[in-house]
Design goal:
The protein is α+β, with helices and mostly antiparallel strands. The chain has eleven helices and six strands. A hairpin with a 6-residue loop joins strand 4 and strand 5. The protein is globular.
Length: about 300
């Protein structure tokens, strides 16, 4: 595979708005923690410490009460980053038009799972407060807690979609010379953002293939330590599945790279451990892919 050239990226920038969009995900959640100012002051005073030397943050409910929600939040954020690429500095990330429908389908699933966990917390909230009263002793304050009706409003998960801006979107009442300079600056920013986004794809490929090469070449059958797990192959399979979403410039090279990566997922971890020839061939192909993306990342 030939690495993507700057000329390819430049040509892609002019039509990026028709091939990609900016998506963002906002997740709100109740922390389940509260600063106790009185106990903080008492603690610092008792140790002759400054008022800001320590802070007493109370865990209002058990860790288990919020564990399901927190797991879903981490899963959703990680999945969002996996399916998108970095874009400018406003929190939004870029995704290809081809990846939009799979992304929204995945978001609906995540939202439904998130809502089920929130429902569970709301239904059990009064009991969590009762349990906290026993667990926290004199630290317990009923006023620290929202009601079971209020708690639901503290959780939410939404996503938004915006078009990719272009330099032609810029319109303002000023001289054409000044406007042209600003449009050129916008175009340069878009160019850099596009290059950084594409670089992120190649970096993901390099990271996973390098890890596979290292793990497969260093594997010794029968050793209790070292080796590799099923995630060695599964992580590459996950990347292959989202490559269409990440190809924001419609690059044939990236399409071809995704096809090449499929060869690394032909055998699972168990087969790679059992067959030395399969392991050797897979490591060699992973190395060839790693070598092929090195020019772009140099």
């Amino acid at each position: 595979m030939n690495s993507m050239t700057p000329a390819t990226l430049s040509a892609s920038t002019s039509t990026l708005a028709s091939r990609a969009m900016i998506v963002s995900v906002t997740i709100s959640q109740w922390s389940g923690r509260r600063l106790d100012r009185q106990v903080t002051q008492e603690l610092n005073d008792s140790h002759n410490a400054a008022s800001d030397a320590s802070r007493v943050n109370k865990l209002l409910v058990s860790k288990e009460a919020l564990a399901g929600i927190q797991t879903l939040v981490s899963e959703t954020r990680n999945g969002f980053y996996e399916r998108t690429l970095p874009w400018l500095n406003d929190g939004g990330r870029i995704i290809s038009a081809d990846g939009y429908l799979p992304f929204t389908a995945w978001m609906r699933v995540q939202s439904a799972k998130f809502q089920r966990e929130v429902d569970k917390l709301v239904n059990d909230f009064d009991q969590h407060v009762t349990d906290a009263q026993k667990r926290m002793g004199k630290l317990f304050k009923a006023t620290d807690y929202p009601t079971s009706n209020e708690i639901r409003e503290k959780f939410g998960i939404v996503y938004s979609v915006l078009p990719v801006p272009t330099s032609t979107d810029f319109r303002v009442d000023m001289s054409e010379a000044h406007a042209a300079l600003i449009r050129a600056d916008i175009e340069e920013q878009l160019q850099k953002a596009t290059e950084n986004a594409v670089r992120d794809v190649y970096q993901r490929v390099a990271t996973l293939t390098e890890r596979m090469v290292d793990r497969l070449n260093s594997f010794t059958p029968g050793e209790r330590t070292g080796g590799f797990r099923s995630s060695l192959v599964e992580n590459i399979a996950d990347l292959v599945s989202v490559m269409p979403s990440l190809n924001i410039v419609g690059s044939p090279e990236l399409d071809a790279l995704g096809e090449r990566l499929k060869a690394l997922t032909k055998y699972d971890a168990a087969a790679l451990k059992e067959d030395a020839n399969v392991r050797k061939d897979t490591a060699a192909e992973a190395q060839r892919i790693l070598d092929s993306v090195s020019d772009f990342l140099a």
